[in-house]
Amino acid sequence: MPSLVSEALQLFDVEVRQCFAQSIAVEVTDRAWQQAQLNLSHGGLGLRSVSHHSSAAYIASLCASGFGDAQNSHLSHTVDLFKKLVSPSEVISVDAITTSPVHQRVLSKKLEDHQFSLLLEASSPADKARLLSVSAPHAASWLLVTPFPGRDLHLDPNELQISIQWWLGIDTARGSSCSLCPGLALDRLGNHATTSASLSEGAAAEEAEVRKHRANDPKCSELGWGCIPLAVETYGNWVREAQSTFSRLASHLAIITSSHKR
Q1: What is the 3-state secondary structure (H, E, C) of 191-218?
Q2: Residue 143 contacts residue 166 (beta carbons within 8 Å)
Q3: Which long-range contacts (CB under 8 A, 24 or more apart) does 148-156 make?
Q4: Which of 1, 14, 86, 201 is spaced 20 to 30 Å from 184 by Cα?
Q5: Treating both helix axes as pointing N-terminal to C-terminal, what angle do 73-83 and 54-65 enclose, rounded to 10 degrees?
Q6: Bigger pLDDT: 237 or 39?
Q7: CA distance 217 to 144
Q8: What percentage of the chain has pLDDT greater than the value 70?
Q9: What is the per-residue pLDDT for 67?
Q10: Alpha carbon distance, N-terminus to C-terminus of the chain
Q11: Rounded CA Rg of the chain
């Protein structure tokens, strides 16, 4: 029963928060920690609070075990606790879950939907825009990619730390100023850094070209090939026509390369 182990669960959450703070080398604010506890689809990091989700886990477990009946006082008490953690439109009843048992993922989603709504409601316009951005479809895909150092497709510790800090809205400037704009202090969310003179049009493509040369030139030299990297800069997602063009180009290059090997 959650109420019997609530203190232990809260202590565990504290330990996880402290460990996370050490990994990103900065103090984690309460607001940032609330976001980090959300799943990736809500712009979080999946560091789910065991104390917050204990009622969902207990209800689902009790129902699945066959002990979830309307006469069970422990179940009734936990359902009442769960109701306080979700929006009024998402409340559940003992009769409903005993008639049709519910999985924890369904209950946990109700908790996270409400937690996300509260976080969004309490956000400043800038934080709200950032939160909506990081919770957009596929926004968290970079967190799911397997690092591949051999192809230079990975983030070093400093890059990962600053990326996570920005993702959670943690102050990345910490009182520093822009080296390219004398006298101008950097903003808390790092928006100036992404629009400064150092990021002129084409800079991202040029940087990508350098990375591809660094990763592929040695192997190409061994094979007697020349490396011509393809790097394209975009300000949004590829449209279908662009995806189709690059797919055809990649297929054509694969055929040429294969013929050359034979």
Answers
A1: CHHHCCHHHCCCHHHHHHHHHHHHHHHH
A2: no
A3: 150/215, 151/215, 152/211, 152/214, 152/215
A4: 201
A5: 140
A6: 39
A7: 28
A8: 82
A9: 67
A10: 68
A11: 25
Q: What is the DSSP string of 87-114?
A: -GGG---HHHHHHS---HHHHHHHHHHH
- Residues with Cβ within 8 Å of 240's Cβ and at least 6 positions away in sequence, in order, are none
d(CA 110, CA 260): 56
- The DSSP result for 45-72, as a single string, is -S---TTTTHHHHHHHHHHHHT---TT-
* CA–CA gap between residue 28 and residue 13 (Å, rounded): 13
The two structure tokens encoding residue 182: 């004398």
- Say if CB 211 and CB 226 are below 8 A apart: no
For 137, phi then psi, to 5°, come to -55, 130
> CB-based burial of residue 58 (10 Å sphere; 0-12 exposed, 13-18 middle, 19+ buried)?
buried
Integer Cα distance of 159 and 19 in angstroms: 19
The Cβ of residue 237 has, within 10 Å, a number of other Cβ atoms equal to 9
Structure tokens at 150: 């051999």
Q: Which two tokens stand for residue 147?
A: 């690092």
Q: What is the DSSP letter of 185?
A: B
Q: Global pTM?
A: 0.68
Q: What is the pLDDT of residues 84-134, one digit of tens each?
A: 999 888 888 888 887 787 889 999 999 999 999 999 999 988 889 889 999
pLDDT reported for residue 262: 43
Between CA 11 and CA 248 the distance in angstroms is: 55
Contacts of 30 (CB under 8 A, 6+ apart): none
Nearest alpha-carbon partner for 48 in 119, 139, 109:
109
